[in-house]
Amino acid sequence: xxxxxxxxxxxxxxxxxxxxxxxxxxxxxxxxxxxxxxxxxxxxxxxxxxxxxxxxxxxxxxxxxxxxxxxxxxxxxxxxxxxxxxxxxxxxxxxxxxxxxxxxxxxxxxxxxxxxxxxxxxxxxxxxxxxxxxxxxxxxxxxxxxxxxxxxxxxxxxxxxxxxxxxxxxxxx
Length: 173
What we know:
The chain has helices at 3-15, 26-36, 42-51, 71-79, 123-131, 136-140, and strands spanning 88-94, 97-101, 106-111, 114-122, 141-149, 156-165, 168-169. With 173 residues, the protein is an alpha+beta fold. The strands form 2 sheets. The protein has a 5-stranded antiparallel β-sheet. The chain has a two-stranded antiparallel sheet with strand order 5-6. Helix 1 packs across helix 3. It is globular.
């Protein structure tokens, strides 16, 4: 059995918990690609059509292809601004932080604090790490500490805050 097939089976097993939606149809995938104007990276397409339609993965889970708040509608809304063409926001971490997939299947960190950052992950490696319990947040951000004033007593307190994204500028040249 090929490695991709084994990963799909492992993801399918994880998604069989009753909390994940059923897979999207091939027609839904093709419709999404037509609306996007480009093809979804093939392995990610397999996840949508063979595992489940969204929810799987880190953060708040992958956006779905079908429904109210979808991959296509989110991408279209982002493109109204200066969002790069072909950078698909897939996993929402909250607080304007996204793990995205480019057309080559690389994971790119996007947040409101700076330009997109290319990680060392591909879609396959990313989802395998998630299955293995890797804390992907710590893999994509350097932690740092900041001293803030407690709003209730005015005393300084040290807290962890999101650091800078790990990686290199995207797109890679």
